[in-house]
Amino acid sequence: MRLAIVGAGDVGRSVADLAGEYGHDVVALADSSGAAVDADGIDVEGALERKAGGEPVGTADPATLFETDYDVLVEATPTTLGDAEPGFTHVERALETDHHVVLANKGPVAERYEELRALEADSAGSIRFEATVGGAIPVLSTIEDCTPQAVTAARGVLNGTANFILTRMAAEGLDYEHVLAEAQDLGVAEADPTFDVDGTDAALKFVILANVLADGGFSLEDATVEGIQSIPGSALELAAEDGRTIRLIGEASRDGVRVGPRLVPENGALAVTGTRNIVQLETKHAGSLHNSGRGAGGPETATAVLSDVGRLPEL
Under a CB-based contact definition with an 8 Å cutoff, are residues 94 and 125 in contact? Predict the structure, then answer.
């Protein structure tokens, strides 16, 4: 497949870097400042070196990405809420010209799911978005294999930053602010960690899961969300005395989405530690299925993107 990648952050760069190992050619790579475009395949190494050096990835106008001869648009721009722009327009433009789309950007899938599916229905192209939920963990493909109708609910931990903070608070008896600062120093938490610690990031992922299960009907505003900022270290100490711990747990079903701190058994499946993620799928015929692994990171998420590319039919 010939890939046009819009977004040159960690995920977009990793997709470009790994595409050749999966047998794909990168014919365009663009961010907001420029683009490298070549129908015969761009010099990926050169583009990534320019980006690492603080230069534009290429000298072309970013809009020229859509004019090259490509098969799959990889949408890896930052997630935005509400109208989910510019990601939604990128997807719309690709589908309207009968190209496939693979998303790493959660915004369009969480906030405008029905519109995406309507665009797909009128296009020869398809959309896939495994990378929007759980990084490298094959959550959506597992649901697809079971068929969404056979999955009744999904729950689990889908934010590594919040999970790291809670794990450290429990293990060391430290307070929230201390561990947050440590996480920022280690690069586990962003300089502005709001989306992670207030539950928004996890909620977006569970909204996507609810949309897949119910074939739409949900956006972030439909979710009940509570973060971890107000959890005192004493709460984790009390939980430990009872053989339990606290995790930021999300739940998605056809009835709704909830995300918030929950007590879970200390040695239970949902008590993953550090930055690991886990999703537990409840199914009608196969019982409870658990998928766990790295839920974020450039190369990790890129593997989900490229796995989706591999599932697409030839146009």
Answer: yes
Phi and psi of 46, rounded to 5°?
Answer: -65, -45
Here the tokens at position 61 are 């106008």
Q: Are 206 and 257 in contact (CB under 8 A)?
A: yes
Kindly report the CATH class assigned to 2-135+298-311.
alpha beta
The per-residue pLDDT for range 226-275, each reduced to its tens digit, is 999 999 999 999 999 999 999 999 999 999 999 999 999 999 999 999 99
Q: Which member of 51, 106, 205, 284 is catalytic? A: 205
How far apart (Å, rounded) are the C-alpha atoms in residues 56 and 48? 9
Q: Look at residues 262, 248, 287 and name the one whose alpha carbon lies nearest to residue 157.
A: 248
Q: What is the distance between the alpha carbons of residues 153 and 137, in angstroms, rounded to a whole number? A: 17
Q: For residue 92, what are the contacts with CB-CB under 8 A and spacing of at least 6?
A: 119
Mention the CATH class of domain 141-294: alpha beta
Closest to 296 (Cα-Cα) out of 212, 213, 183, 210: 183
Whether 141-294 and 2-135+298-311 are alike in CATH topology: the answer is no
Provide the whole-model pTM: 0.95
Three-state SS for 157?
strand
Domain boundaries along the sequence of the chain: 2-135+298-311, 141-294
Helix (H) or strand (E) holding 203: helix 200-214
Give the dihedral sign, CA 312/135/137/300: positive
Tell me whether residue 205 is one of the annotated catalytic residues. Answer: yes
Q: Measured between alpha carbons, how far is 212 from 214 in angstroms, rounded to an integer?
A: 6
* Cβ proximity of 259 and 225 under 8 Å: yes
Burial (0-12, 13-18, 19+ Cβ within 10 Å), 17: middle
